[in-house]
Design goal:
By secondary structure, the chain is α+β, with helices and mostly antiparallel strands. The chain contains 13 helices and four strands. α3 (about 50-60) packs across α7. The structure holds flavin mononucleotide (FMN).
């Protein structure tokens, strides 16, 4: 694996960043710069001990107010897992990866702790939901980095949230507990590729927010990304609705995707199961 800053940032951003190049990069930084999602795995199992070690590392992530509002479910029962996976035939890795975890925001535990100590706690607020979601996301990303660090591959699975009735029933989620994402885990079957990121010129701001260069930067990003991994004409989203674009870049793809938003069923589920968002 490359450890050269220029090479790694060029792969990640498609441009040379004005970063001080001090020679070989610290291996952890190099690994994160080169990280990627993996959706295909060999048959080699991931041992329970390894998963538990990675979870211990992941649970070392920062936690808002030390409230520690995450719960991780190791979904080992094949029949339960298939009941979820069958909803997502376009993502066969959900049912077939050697291991599958679900990272949940857990706003329930704090209410139970309050009950134990005789303090009434209402944690179904927007703040309670947001804190729990952030805690779960931090733990999941720490798990991903740890897993990738020992040669495993991962794929987060947020589409679970589009099938909340099944997911909540299969995992017996009580009110106040919701999935942030599932996570496929296994030994990568292929090297995979680095997904090019938007340039820091538009994602990093100094002192004040400034997106005045957004359009020019997005156009340039689209072209860089297209030059590396063009999205084929047959992969254009919903041509029946949007037609075929002559040039189909990241921004057209993401705008089409976001024009048909997901999440309505998830919003309905959490409102009925513990969250008022007030
Ligand atoms: C919160 C979250 C949810 C995601 N959900 C899915 C999913 O449901 N299915 C899937 O195949 N990939 C999913 N992904 C993977 C993203 O598509 C992937 O991270 C993105 O394309 C960038 O690629 P990279 O991680 O290789 O840089 C998810 C990623 C995140 C962070």
């Amino acid at each position: 694996m490359a450890s050269n800053l220029k090479e790694l940032t060029a792969r990640r951003f498609g441009i040379e960043l004005a970063l001080a190049d001090t020679g070989a990069l610290e291996p952890f930084l190099a690994r994160v710069l080169a990280r990627r999602t993996h959706r295909r795995y060999t048959d080699m199992p991931v041992s329970e001990q390894q998963i538990d070690l990675l979870l211990a590392v992941a649970l070392s992530a920062s936690a808002k107010s030390d409230f520690q509002q995450v719960s991780v479910i190791k979904l080992k029962d094949a029949a339960r897992r298939q009941r979820i996976a069958q909803h997502f035939p376009a993502m066969p890795w959900i049912g077939s990866s050697p291991a599958f975890l679900v990272f949940c925001g857990d706003a329930r535990r704090l209410e139970r702790v309050g009950a134990m100590r005789g303090h009434a706690i209402v944690n179904g607020t927007l703040e309670g939901f947001f804190n729990a979601a952030v805690d779960a996301a931090l733990v999941m990303q720490t798990f991903i980095l740890a897993a990738e660090g020992v040669g495993l591959g991962c794929c987060p699975i947020s589409v679970l949230r589009n099938q909340m009735p099944t997911v909540a029933e299969v995992l017996r989620l009580p009110d106040g507990v919701f999935p942030v994402a599932g996570l496929c885990l296994g030994h990568p079957a292929a090297e995979g590729f680095v997904s090019m990121r938007l340039p820091p010129a538009i994602t990093v701001h100094t002192d004040v927010y400034d997106d005045s260069r957004l359009e020019a930067e997005i156009d340039a990003y689209d072209k860089r990304r297209h030059a590396r991994h063009a999205i084929g004409r047959d992969q254009q989203r919903n041509p029946a609705k949007f037609g075929h674009a002559e040039f189909y870049g990241w921004s057209e793809d993401k705008a089409r995707q976001a024009a048909e938003p997901e999440g309505a069923l998830f919003a309905e589920h959490v409102r009925r199961h513990g969250f008022t968002f007030r």
